# Entry
Amino acid sequence: MLTTLLIFLVLLIFIFLGFPIFMSLLITGIIFIIAGGNSLDLTVIKMFGSVNSLSLLAIPFFITAGNIIMRSKITDKLVNFADAAVGFLPGGLGHVNVVTSMIFGGIQGSGCADAAAIGGMLIPAMEKQGYDTDYSVAVTAGSSMLSPIIPPSIAMILYSYYTEVHIGRLFMGGLIPGIIIGLLMMGVVYMEYRARHYDIPRTKFSILNLLKTGWHSLGALLMPLIILSGICFGYVTPTESGVLAIAYGLFYGFVISKTLKLRDIPDILVDSAVTTAVVYMTIAGAGVLSNVLVRLHFQSEVRDFAVNVLQSPVLVVIFLVLVFIVLGMFLDPTVIIAMFAPTVLAIGNALGFDPVHFGVIMVVVMQLGAITPPVGTFLFISCGVAHLPMEKSIKPLMPYIAVVLVVMVIALLFPSFVTWLPNLIYNR
# Structure
Protein backbone atom coordinates (compact mmCIF):
# COMPACT_ATOMS: atom_id res chain seq x y z
CA MET A 1 0.00 0.00 0.00
CA LEU A 2 2.94 2.32 0.71
CA THR A 3 4.15 1.83 -2.87
CA THR A 4 0.68 2.63 -4.18
CA LEU A 5 0.57 5.86 -2.21
CA LEU A 6 4.02 6.73 -3.54
CA ILE A 7 2.78 6.15 -7.12
CA PHE A 8 -0.12 8.58 -6.66
CA LEU A 9 2.21 11.09 -4.97
CA VAL A 10 4.63 10.99 -7.93
CA LEU A 11 1.70 11.30 -10.35
CA LEU A 12 0.40 14.38 -8.52
CA ILE A 13 3.86 15.94 -8.49
CA PHE A 14 4.09 15.67 -12.28
CA ILE A 15 0.56 17.08 -12.67
CA PHE A 16 1.30 20.07 -10.43
CA LEU A 17 4.57 20.65 -12.28
CA GLY A 18 2.45 21.29 -15.35
CA PHE A 19 2.99 18.07 -17.29
CA PRO A 20 0.04 17.04 -19.49
CA ILE A 21 -2.10 14.31 -17.92
CA PHE A 22 -1.06 11.61 -20.41
CA MET A 23 2.65 12.43 -19.89
CA SER A 24 2.22 12.38 -16.12
CA LEU A 25 0.58 8.95 -16.34
CA LEU A 26 3.17 7.59 -18.75
CA ILE A 27 6.27 8.88 -16.92
CA THR A 28 4.95 7.66 -13.57
CA GLY A 29 4.20 4.26 -15.07
CA ILE A 30 7.66 4.00 -16.63
CA ILE A 31 9.38 4.96 -13.37
CA PHE A 32 7.64 2.21 -11.43
CA ILE A 33 7.95 -0.35 -14.23
CA ILE A 34 11.73 0.15 -14.09
CA ALA A 35 11.69 0.18 -10.27
CA GLY A 36 9.83 -3.11 -10.34
CA GLY A 37 12.53 -4.70 -12.46
CA ASN A 38 10.40 -5.02 -15.58
CA SER A 39 11.44 -4.39 -19.17
CA LEU A 40 10.50 -1.15 -20.91
CA ASP A 41 9.01 -3.36 -23.64
CA LEU A 42 6.05 -3.68 -21.28
CA THR A 43 5.37 0.05 -21.66
CA VAL A 44 5.06 -0.20 -25.44
CA ILE A 45 2.92 -3.33 -25.22
CA LYS A 46 0.50 -1.76 -22.76
CA MET A 47 0.31 1.56 -24.60
CA PHE A 48 -0.66 -0.03 -27.89
CA GLY A 49 -2.74 -2.76 -26.28
CA SER A 50 -4.84 -0.15 -24.47
CA VAL A 51 -5.99 1.55 -27.69
CA ASN A 52 -5.93 -1.41 -30.10
CA SER A 53 -9.67 -2.06 -30.16
CA LEU A 54 -12.41 -1.82 -32.77
CA SER A 55 -14.81 -0.76 -30.01
CA LEU A 56 -12.84 2.44 -29.45
CA LEU A 57 -13.27 3.44 -33.09
CA ALA A 58 -16.66 4.84 -32.11
CA ILE A 59 -14.86 7.67 -30.30
CA PRO A 60 -13.14 9.32 -33.31
CA PHE A 61 -16.28 8.84 -35.39
CA PHE A 62 -18.52 10.62 -32.87
CA ILE A 63 -15.90 13.35 -32.39
CA THR A 64 -15.72 13.88 -36.16
CA ALA A 65 -19.52 13.91 -36.47
CA GLY A 66 -19.71 16.51 -33.72
CA ASN A 67 -17.13 18.72 -35.41
CA ILE A 68 -19.00 18.47 -38.72
CA ILE A 69 -22.22 19.46 -37.00
CA MET A 70 -20.61 22.40 -35.22
CA ARG A 71 -19.02 23.61 -38.46
CA SER A 72 -22.50 23.38 -40.02
CA LYS A 73 -23.71 26.08 -37.59
CA ILE A 74 -26.03 23.65 -35.87
CA THR A 75 -25.27 25.11 -32.44
CA ASP A 76 -26.88 28.40 -33.47
CA LYS A 77 -30.11 26.63 -34.41
CA LEU A 78 -30.15 24.59 -31.20
CA VAL A 79 -29.69 27.73 -29.11
CA ASN A 80 -32.49 29.51 -31.00
CA PHE A 81 -34.81 26.55 -30.49
CA ALA A 82 -33.96 26.29 -26.78
CA ASP A 83 -34.44 30.04 -26.40
CA ALA A 84 -37.91 29.81 -27.98
CA ALA A 85 -38.79 26.85 -25.73
CA VAL A 86 -37.51 27.97 -22.30
CA GLY A 87 -36.00 31.45 -22.72
CA PHE A 88 -39.14 33.04 -21.27
CA LEU A 89 -38.59 31.40 -17.84
CA PRO A 90 -36.89 33.33 -15.02
CA GLY A 91 -33.28 32.49 -15.67
CA GLY A 92 -33.55 33.11 -19.40
CA LEU A 93 -30.30 32.18 -21.09
CA GLY A 94 -29.34 29.99 -18.14
CA HIS A 95 -32.22 27.64 -19.02
CA VAL A 96 -31.27 27.91 -22.68
CA ASN A 97 -27.73 26.83 -21.74
CA VAL A 98 -28.98 23.69 -19.96
CA VAL A 99 -31.50 22.67 -22.63
CA THR A 100 -28.99 23.19 -25.42
CA SER A 101 -26.52 20.97 -23.56
CA MET A 102 -29.18 18.27 -23.24
CA ILE A 103 -29.79 18.30 -26.99
CA PHE A 104 -26.10 18.66 -27.81
CA GLY A 105 -25.34 15.63 -25.63
CA GLY A 106 -27.59 13.58 -27.88
CA ILE A 107 -25.45 14.57 -30.85
CA GLN A 108 -21.83 14.63 -29.71
CA GLY A 109 -21.35 12.89 -26.36
CA SER A 110 -18.37 15.00 -25.28
CA GLY A 111 -18.48 17.39 -22.34
CA CYS A 112 -15.39 19.19 -23.61
CA ALA A 113 -17.07 19.94 -26.94
CA ASP A 114 -20.20 21.01 -25.07
CA ALA A 115 -18.31 23.45 -22.83
CA ALA A 116 -16.35 24.88 -25.76
CA ALA A 117 -19.16 25.17 -28.32
CA ILE A 118 -22.05 26.21 -26.09
CA GLY A 119 -19.92 28.12 -23.61
CA GLY A 120 -18.23 30.02 -26.40
CA MET A 121 -21.62 31.19 -27.62
CA LEU A 122 -23.70 31.61 -24.46
CA ILE A 123 -21.22 32.83 -21.84
CA PRO A 124 -20.52 36.11 -23.71
CA ALA A 125 -24.25 36.45 -24.47
CA MET A 126 -25.17 35.96 -20.81
CA GLU A 127 -22.56 38.47 -19.68
CA LYS A 128 -23.83 40.97 -22.24
CA GLN A 129 -27.37 40.62 -20.88
CA GLY A 130 -26.17 41.34 -17.34
CA TYR A 131 -25.59 37.90 -15.79
CA ASP A 132 -22.54 37.64 -13.52
CA THR A 133 -19.56 35.85 -15.03
CA ASP A 134 -19.35 33.26 -12.25
CA TYR A 135 -23.06 32.48 -12.72
CA SER A 136 -22.58 32.03 -16.47
CA VAL A 137 -19.55 29.77 -16.00
CA ALA A 138 -21.27 27.64 -13.34
CA VAL A 139 -24.29 27.03 -15.58
CA THR A 140 -22.06 26.15 -18.54
CA ALA A 141 -19.69 23.84 -16.65
CA GLY A 142 -22.53 22.20 -14.72
CA SER A 143 -24.68 21.55 -17.78
CA SER A 144 -21.69 20.22 -19.77
CA MET A 145 -21.94 17.20 -17.45
CA LEU A 146 -25.05 16.23 -19.40
CA SER A 147 -23.16 15.35 -22.59
CA PRO A 148 -21.33 12.33 -21.07
CA ILE A 149 -24.62 11.13 -19.53
CA ILE A 150 -27.21 11.56 -22.27
CA PRO A 151 -26.41 9.12 -25.10
CA PRO A 152 -24.36 8.79 -27.18
CA SER A 153 -21.70 9.11 -24.50
CA ILE A 154 -17.97 8.71 -25.05
CA ALA A 155 -17.60 7.92 -21.33
CA MET A 156 -20.13 5.08 -21.62
CA ILE A 157 -18.31 3.75 -24.69
CA LEU A 158 -15.08 3.60 -22.67
CA TYR A 159 -16.80 1.90 -19.74
CA SER A 160 -18.35 -0.67 -22.08
CA TYR A 161 -14.95 -1.30 -23.66
CA TYR A 162 -13.28 -2.05 -20.32
CA THR A 163 -16.15 -4.08 -18.82
CA GLU A 164 -17.97 -5.57 -21.86
CA VAL A 165 -21.28 -4.35 -20.47
CA HIS A 166 -23.72 -3.89 -23.38
CA ILE A 167 -23.24 -0.37 -24.74
CA GLY A 168 -26.84 0.00 -25.89
CA ARG A 169 -28.09 -0.74 -22.38
CA LEU A 170 -25.62 1.72 -20.89
CA PHE A 171 -26.76 4.39 -23.34
CA MET A 172 -30.41 3.85 -22.50
CA GLY A 173 -29.64 3.58 -18.80
CA GLY A 174 -28.15 7.07 -18.82
CA LEU A 175 -31.01 8.72 -20.72
CA ILE A 176 -33.61 9.17 -17.95
CA PRO A 177 -31.09 10.19 -15.23
CA GLY A 178 -29.56 12.64 -17.71
CA ILE A 179 -32.90 14.26 -18.45
CA ILE A 180 -33.80 14.46 -14.75
CA ILE A 181 -30.41 16.01 -13.93
CA GLY A 182 -31.00 18.58 -16.67
CA LEU A 183 -34.45 19.49 -15.32
CA LEU A 184 -33.11 19.84 -11.77
CA MET A 185 -30.27 22.00 -13.06
CA MET A 186 -32.92 24.26 -14.56
CA GLY A 187 -34.36 24.44 -11.04
CA VAL A 188 -30.95 25.55 -9.76
CA VAL A 189 -30.80 28.20 -12.51
CA TYR A 190 -34.19 29.52 -11.40
CA MET A 191 -33.25 29.65 -7.70
CA GLU A 192 -29.93 31.34 -8.42
CA TYR A 193 -31.71 33.85 -10.64
CA ARG A 194 -34.04 34.73 -7.78
CA ALA A 195 -31.28 34.71 -5.14
CA ARG A 196 -29.19 37.18 -7.15
CA HIS A 197 -32.22 39.43 -7.70
CA TYR A 198 -31.80 39.52 -11.45
CA ASP A 199 -34.38 41.37 -13.50
CA ILE A 200 -33.11 40.70 -16.99
CA PRO A 201 -35.36 40.91 -20.07
CA ARG A 202 -36.33 37.46 -21.35
CA THR A 203 -37.60 36.07 -24.62
CA LYS A 204 -41.36 36.36 -24.92
CA PHE A 205 -42.94 32.94 -25.41
CA SER A 206 -44.64 32.39 -28.74
CA ILE A 207 -46.01 29.15 -30.12
CA LEU A 208 -45.37 30.44 -33.62
CA ASN A 209 -41.72 31.20 -32.79
CA LEU A 210 -41.31 27.78 -31.15
CA LEU A 211 -42.71 26.01 -34.20
CA LYS A 212 -40.61 28.14 -36.54
CA THR A 213 -37.32 27.52 -34.69
CA GLY A 214 -38.27 23.86 -34.23
CA TRP A 215 -38.75 23.50 -37.98
CA HIS A 216 -35.42 25.18 -38.69
CA SER A 217 -33.75 22.92 -36.09
CA LEU A 218 -35.46 19.73 -37.25
CA GLY A 219 -32.41 18.46 -39.11
CA ALA A 220 -30.34 18.83 -35.95
CA LEU A 221 -32.99 17.34 -33.67
CA LEU A 222 -33.29 14.25 -35.86
CA MET A 223 -29.63 13.34 -35.43
CA PRO A 224 -29.91 11.91 -31.87
CA LEU A 225 -32.89 9.83 -32.98
CA ILE A 226 -30.95 8.43 -35.92
CA ILE A 227 -27.95 7.56 -33.75
CA LEU A 228 -29.85 6.01 -30.86
CA SER A 229 -32.54 4.16 -32.80
CA GLY A 230 -29.91 2.41 -34.89
CA ILE A 231 -28.04 1.22 -31.79
CA CYS A 232 -31.08 0.37 -29.68
CA PHE A 233 -32.84 -1.71 -32.31
CA GLY A 234 -29.73 -3.55 -33.36
CA TYR A 235 -29.41 -2.15 -36.87
CA VAL A 236 -25.90 -0.82 -36.26
CA THR A 237 -23.12 -1.10 -33.71
CA PRO A 238 -21.95 2.04 -31.85
CA THR A 239 -18.99 2.25 -34.24
CA GLU A 240 -21.25 1.96 -37.29
CA SER A 241 -23.56 4.51 -35.67
CA GLY A 242 -20.63 6.93 -35.53
CA VAL A 243 -20.08 6.47 -39.26
CA LEU A 244 -23.81 7.01 -39.82
CA ALA A 245 -23.62 10.20 -37.76
CA ILE A 246 -20.78 11.47 -39.96
CA ALA A 247 -22.75 10.68 -43.11
CA TYR A 248 -25.82 12.46 -41.78
CA GLY A 249 -23.73 15.40 -40.60
CA LEU A 250 -22.25 15.81 -44.07
CA PHE A 251 -25.71 15.57 -45.61
CA TYR A 252 -27.03 18.13 -43.16
CA GLY A 253 -24.14 20.52 -43.72
CA PHE A 254 -23.98 20.30 -47.50
CA VAL A 255 -27.66 19.80 -48.39
CA ILE A 256 -29.91 21.01 -45.57
CA SER A 257 -28.12 23.95 -43.91
CA LYS A 258 -25.79 24.52 -46.91
CA THR A 259 -23.27 26.09 -44.52
CA LEU A 260 -20.60 23.39 -44.85
CA LYS A 261 -17.99 23.87 -47.57
CA LEU A 262 -15.47 21.45 -49.03
CA ARG A 263 -12.68 23.71 -47.79
CA ASP A 264 -13.92 23.09 -44.22
CA ILE A 265 -13.24 19.34 -44.38
CA PRO A 266 -9.42 19.46 -43.83
CA ASP A 267 -9.85 21.62 -40.72
CA ILE A 268 -12.58 19.30 -39.41
CA LEU A 269 -10.36 16.26 -39.90
CA VAL A 270 -7.39 17.93 -38.21
CA ASP A 271 -9.47 19.11 -35.23
CA SER A 272 -11.00 15.64 -34.89
CA ALA A 273 -7.58 13.98 -35.11
CA VAL A 274 -6.15 16.24 -32.41
CA THR A 275 -9.07 15.64 -30.04
CA THR A 276 -8.99 11.88 -30.70
CA ALA A 277 -5.22 11.82 -30.14
CA VAL A 278 -5.63 13.47 -26.74
CA VAL A 279 -8.22 10.86 -25.72
CA TYR A 280 -6.17 7.95 -27.04
CA MET A 281 -2.92 9.18 -25.47
CA THR A 282 -4.71 9.48 -22.14
CA ILE A 283 -6.06 5.93 -22.50
CA ALA A 284 -2.58 4.66 -23.44
CA GLY A 285 -0.93 6.38 -20.47
CA ALA A 286 -3.64 5.13 -18.12
CA GLY A 287 -3.10 1.62 -19.47
CA VAL A 288 0.58 1.69 -18.51
CA LEU A 289 -0.05 3.02 -15.00
CA SER A 290 -3.04 0.71 -14.51
CA ASN A 291 -0.82 -2.27 -15.29
CA VAL A 292 1.61 -1.15 -12.59
CA LEU A 293 -1.26 -0.94 -10.10
CA VAL A 294 -2.53 -4.37 -11.16
CA ARG A 295 0.90 -5.84 -10.43
CA LEU A 296 0.68 -4.28 -6.97
CA HIS A 297 -2.85 -5.73 -6.57
CA PHE A 298 -4.24 -2.25 -5.91
CA GLN A 299 -7.54 -2.81 -7.69
CA SER A 300 -7.91 -6.17 -5.96
CA GLU A 301 -7.30 -4.56 -2.58
CA VAL A 302 -9.94 -1.92 -3.28
CA ARG A 303 -12.40 -4.63 -4.29
CA ASP A 304 -11.62 -6.81 -1.27
CA PHE A 305 -11.93 -3.84 1.09
CA ALA A 306 -15.27 -2.85 -0.39
CA VAL A 307 -16.74 -6.36 -0.50
CA ASN A 308 -15.22 -8.04 2.58
CA VAL A 309 -14.73 -5.13 4.99
CA LEU A 310 -17.49 -2.64 4.21
CA GLN A 311 -19.95 -5.31 3.00
CA SER A 312 -22.96 -2.95 3.08
CA PRO A 313 -23.88 -1.86 -0.46
CA VAL A 314 -24.65 1.65 0.83
CA LEU A 315 -21.25 1.99 2.53
CA VAL A 316 -19.53 0.61 -0.56
CA VAL A 317 -21.20 3.15 -2.83
CA ILE A 318 -20.36 6.02 -0.44
CA PHE A 319 -16.76 4.77 -0.33
CA LEU A 320 -16.50 4.63 -4.15
CA VAL A 321 -18.13 8.03 -4.57
CA LEU A 322 -15.63 9.60 -2.16
CA VAL A 323 -12.70 7.85 -3.87
CA PHE A 324 -13.78 8.98 -7.33
CA ILE A 325 -14.50 12.55 -6.23
CA VAL A 326 -11.06 12.83 -4.63
CA LEU A 327 -9.33 11.23 -7.63
CA GLY A 328 -11.41 13.42 -9.92
CA MET A 329 -9.83 16.49 -8.39
CA PHE A 330 -6.53 15.41 -9.94
CA LEU A 331 -7.31 12.96 -12.75
CA ASP A 332 -9.39 13.25 -15.91
CA PRO A 333 -12.55 11.07 -15.94
CA THR A 334 -11.09 9.12 -18.88
CA VAL A 335 -8.21 8.04 -16.66
CA ILE A 336 -10.48 7.03 -13.80
CA ILE A 337 -12.65 4.92 -16.11
CA ALA A 338 -9.58 3.24 -17.63
CA MET A 339 -8.11 2.43 -14.23
CA PHE A 340 -11.21 1.46 -12.27
CA ALA A 341 -13.97 0.26 -14.63
CA PRO A 342 -13.18 -3.48 -14.24
CA THR A 343 -12.87 -3.05 -10.47
CA VAL A 344 -16.23 -1.26 -10.31
CA LEU A 345 -17.86 -4.07 -12.30
CA ALA A 346 -16.34 -6.71 -10.00
CA ILE A 347 -17.54 -4.88 -6.88
CA GLY A 348 -21.02 -4.40 -8.30
CA ASN A 349 -21.30 -8.06 -9.29
CA ALA A 350 -20.08 -9.20 -5.85
CA LEU A 351 -22.75 -7.09 -4.15
CA GLY A 352 -25.51 -8.22 -6.48
CA PHE A 353 -26.00 -4.99 -8.45
CA ASP A 354 -27.26 -5.06 -12.01
CA PRO A 355 -24.19 -4.31 -14.21
CA VAL A 356 -25.99 -1.61 -16.19
CA HIS A 357 -27.48 0.00 -13.06
CA PHE A 358 -24.19 0.11 -11.18
CA GLY A 359 -22.19 1.03 -14.26
CA VAL A 360 -24.30 4.08 -15.11
CA ILE A 361 -24.14 5.38 -11.54
CA MET A 362 -20.38 4.98 -11.32
CA VAL A 363 -19.69 6.50 -14.76
CA VAL A 364 -21.73 9.57 -13.84
CA VAL A 365 -19.92 9.92 -10.51
CA MET A 366 -16.56 9.56 -12.27
CA GLN A 367 -17.51 12.49 -14.52
CA LEU A 368 -17.74 14.83 -11.51
CA GLY A 369 -13.97 15.18 -11.71
CA ALA A 370 -14.45 17.12 -14.94
CA ILE A 371 -16.13 19.99 -13.07
CA THR A 372 -13.96 20.03 -9.95
CA PRO A 373 -10.62 21.88 -9.68
CA PRO A 374 -7.74 21.78 -10.20
CA VAL A 375 -7.88 19.44 -13.23
CA GLY A 376 -11.60 19.67 -14.12
CA THR A 377 -11.59 19.77 -17.92
CA PHE A 378 -15.11 21.09 -18.48
CA LEU A 379 -14.63 23.72 -15.78
CA PHE A 380 -11.22 24.73 -17.16
CA ILE A 381 -12.70 25.28 -20.64
CA SER A 382 -15.66 27.26 -19.31
CA CYS A 383 -13.42 29.48 -17.17
CA GLY A 384 -11.08 29.95 -20.12
CA VAL A 385 -13.93 31.17 -22.32
CA ALA A 386 -15.00 33.66 -19.65
CA HIS A 387 -11.45 34.60 -18.55
CA LEU A 388 -12.52 33.79 -14.98
CA PRO A 389 -10.11 32.41 -12.34
CA MET A 390 -11.19 28.86 -11.55
CA GLU A 391 -11.45 29.45 -7.80
CA LYS A 392 -14.21 32.03 -8.34
CA SER A 393 -16.45 29.46 -10.00
CA ILE A 394 -16.35 26.83 -7.25
CA LYS A 395 -19.05 28.22 -4.94
CA PRO A 396 -21.74 28.81 -7.62
CA LEU A 397 -20.94 25.40 -9.11
CA MET A 398 -21.63 23.45 -5.90
CA PRO A 399 -25.46 23.24 -6.39
CA TYR A 400 -24.92 21.63 -9.80
CA ILE A 401 -22.61 19.01 -8.29
CA ALA A 402 -25.19 18.44 -5.54
CA VAL A 403 -27.91 17.86 -8.16
CA VAL A 404 -25.85 15.13 -9.82
CA LEU A 405 -25.23 13.41 -6.49
CA VAL A 406 -28.91 13.62 -5.47
CA VAL A 407 -30.03 12.00 -8.73
CA MET A 408 -27.42 9.26 -8.30
CA VAL A 409 -28.73 8.56 -4.77
CA ILE A 410 -32.23 8.25 -6.20
CA ALA A 411 -30.92 5.95 -8.93
CA LEU A 412 -29.17 3.81 -6.29
CA LEU A 413 -32.31 3.48 -4.15
CA PHE A 414 -34.59 2.86 -7.15
CA PRO A 415 -32.72 0.75 -9.72
CA SER A 416 -35.61 0.91 -12.20
CA PHE A 417 -34.75 4.60 -12.56
CA VAL A 418 -31.82 3.36 -14.65
CA THR A 419 -32.84 -0.11 -15.78
CA TRP A 420 -36.47 0.42 -16.83
CA LEU A 421 -35.74 1.86 -20.27
CA PRO A 422 -32.98 -0.64 -21.23
CA ASN A 423 -35.16 -3.53 -20.12
CA LEU A 424 -38.14 -2.15 -22.04
CA ILE A 425 -36.18 -1.70 -25.26
CA TYR A 426 -34.26 -4.97 -25.04
CA ASN A 427 -37.31 -6.98 -23.86
CA ARG A 428 -35.94 -8.27 -20.63
DSSP finds 21 helices and no strands in the chain. Residues 264-295 form the longest helix (32 residues). The radius of gyration is 21 Å.
